[in-house]
Automatic annotation (TrEMBL):
Keywords: Isomerase, Rotamase
The protein's name in its UniProt record: Peptidyl-prolyl cis-trans isomerase
Record lineage: Bacteria, Pseudomonadati, Pseudomonadota, Gammaproteobacteria, Alteromonadales
Catalysed conversion reaction: [protein]-peptidylproline (omega=180) = [protein]-peptidylproline (omega=0)
Enzyme nomenclature, EC number: 5.2.1.8
Pfam families the record matches: FKBP_C, FKBP_N
Domain PPIase FKBP-type positions: 119-205
Organism: Shewanella denitrificans (strain OS217 / ATCC BAA-1090 / DSM 15013)
């Protein structure tokens, strides 16, 4: 039991505040003032009149929203440009194949088995990173192969899997328009991200 918050009510109250803090940390803005957040929370809970007029609150919310959108657009533009530059250089390397869609791949292991179709379900091992090498997902690390329909994954994977006889291992370089595009994927993959995968086709189920 906590030495600071000893009763169930205190612990539950702390938990509420902790959850709110985690939500704020996941969606922060530059200059956020936690003491002002706490004051607003306390005033609202106690039914006090707002220390900031509704007009000023609206102006502040609008401006912060504009700044956040501007920062997101700048980050997306930078990610797009960085990905395009990476792919342009990567395409020059020996062994890298560029398809009509813009997908790039190199063969690490050439298998001899059957190739899946668009309607197939497959079992694979994969290791996914950003172009800087940071890992965002890996069945290899988890030690558990992944099973999914060929048609149920990102476009770059759908295309690549149909090129792979069972037993093949490819390194994929997936431009954003064949990955998660301008929306990204939750908090783990930002918009306009170029992704790199090592994919091994283990079986067609």
């Amino acid at each position: 039991m906590s030495d600071v918050f000893s009763t169930l009510e205190q612990q539950a109250s702390y938990g509420v505040g902790r959850q709110m803090g985690e939500q704020l940390a996941a969606n922060p803005f530059e200059g956020i003032d936690i003491s002002a957040v706490q004051a607003g929370l306390a005033d609202a809970f106690e039914g006090k009149e707002s220390a900031v007029s509704m007009e000023d609150l609206q102006v502040a919310f609008t401006e912060i929203s504009r700044r956040l959108q501007e920062a997101q657009e700048a980050a997306a533009d930078a990610a797009s440009a960085e990905g395009e530059s990476f792919l342009a250089e990567n395409a020059k390397r020996d062994g890298v194949v560029v398809t009509d869609s813009g997908l790039q791949y190199e063969v690490l292991v050439q298998g001899e088995g059957e190739k899946p179709t668009h309607e197939s379900t497959v079992r694979t091992h994969y290791h996914g990173t950003f172009i800087n090498g940071d890992v965002f997902d890996s069945s290899v690390t988890r030690g558990q192969p992944a099973e999914f329909p060929v048609s149920g994954v990102i476009a770059g994977w759908t295309e690549a899997l149909q090129l792979m006889p069972v037993g093949t291992k490819l390194k994929l370089f997936v431009p954003h328009h064949l990955a998660y595009g301008e929306r990204g994927a939750g908090a783990s993959i930002p918009p306009f991200s170029t992704l790199v995968f090592e994919v091994e086709l283990l079986d067609i189920i």
